[in-house]
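Lay summary

Proteins are chains of building blocks that fold into shapes. Our project writes down both the chain and a compact code for its shape. Here are two examples, one after the other.
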Amino acid sequence: MKKLVETISNIWKIEELRNRIMITLGLLLVYRFGTRVALPGVDSSLLGQAFSDNFDGGIGGLLNAFTGGALSNVSVFALGIMPYISASIVVQLMGIAIPYLQKLQKEGESGRKKINQITRWLTIGICLVQAPSYLLSLGTLGVDESAFIMGRGIDWLIPSVLILVTGCVFAMWLGEKITDKGIGNGISILIMVGIIATLPQFFVQEVVARLGAGNGGWMLVLIEVVVWLIIILLSVLLVMAVRQIPVQYARRTASGGYERNIMGSRQYIPLKLNASGVMPIIFAQAIMFVPGLIGSASFLKDSNVGQWLQTNFGNNMFGFWYNLVFALLIIVFTYFYTAITVPTNKMADDLKRSGGFIPGIRPGTETSEYLDKIMSQITLPGSIFLAAIAIFPAFAVNLMGVQPNWGLFYGGTSLLIMVGVAIDTMQQVNAYLLNRHYDGLMKTGKNRKVVA
């Protein structure tokens, strides 16, 4: 505890870091306030229990968690930041096939700004599709007509669509401001805060359910918490695990040339076990919507195949077939996303230009092939590990009997996002502390402040 108080005190002493943290907290407070503000013309107190039930567990609960409950509140931030995430993924994938985007990726900061602008416009386009779809589906989701004070005519629909699109763009702006003026990746932090906001409520629901007659009581609650902490630990290991490839750098001689000998500096290339992060889960989750939509199509709806697809892939994300297909898709997408995001050719070229080489491996093509081989070897266990964590909520619900909403926090996208964003933010704070000669968040020891 003394070390924790000392670390917090050190953080507060660094003016720039203190200001960034305060700006981050202030912008997050604005975002959380917006998730509680209902759309004009909607009485949130009359939304109804049937509507809430559609966001308990399953895919609906997952989407609602990403928006911090804004989806079920019919708030101005109901779309959350997910349209921006979708647009970013689309632009990133298009960069593989479209020469213009490939050219922008190589132009440095100016190219990055143009890509960001394209992503913003695509975000608005996605919002213009998602907003009316969401509003028109409120009735089928169980919202009572009495909740719409002004009715659901065109005079309510058009302003509501504009407000939802504006809310998404404003949330995107908040995320970018957190990245520029605050701490961490702003977009990721908004998602993480939304997920964490629903955690206490779902945990309380689980405790209440366990304390009921014959449901295990406090002992099972304790066991569930211990298992949850173990899953968090395994998620941290997955995010942090790297394979270190030793690199030898030639020593520069007085004449300006390079002398390759054992006296050169020795470093490492860190290849992450899970280089793709949570993107394979997001890709796979998007694909998992397709079978349910096919099963509900008019030409298959009443057939045996359609009924089977609706039963196993509709909103049943804890079923056997859903999770089997989900896990296989995650493994496939992990290989795919790693292949397009880890440029082994560029890594080999940069290493060669800087006078570095992997001991026993020739610079250039042979180095690229070696790095590609190592990535393929470590991606297999990484993808299996990622798939196992992604489908563990199904085991928690079916074998441990936890509530579906609380089960979502036993793995999958929610937990990995929380772990990944928390680690990234801690590393940034850690860098500020170490640069000011303080002990970092991830290291113990005495205060190392240096007096100039």
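And here is the second example, written the same way.
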Amino acid sequence: MNIIKVSARSRTAAVAGAIAGVMREAQHAEVQAIGAGAVNQAVKAIVIAKGYLAEEGVHITCVPSFVDVDIDDQERTAIRFVIEPNG
């Protein structure tokens, strides 16, 4: 399972398309962001993807959690969003 990594400079429409594409293929997506700007872009992308998928009759649930990741030998705290079909 690949994690969709979002930065503060990520284009929300592109991330939303990636989320919707992964959901269509695997019925499960994970989005990860570090920092306030990245989390903002991730949340906006999830909302846009929700709209894309709702047009196809797919309703999603998003569960956020904290996760520790190692970047350049430093431990950072990221927010991971697990996205699954609702129901």
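What can we say about the second shape? The helical segments are 12-26, 36-54.
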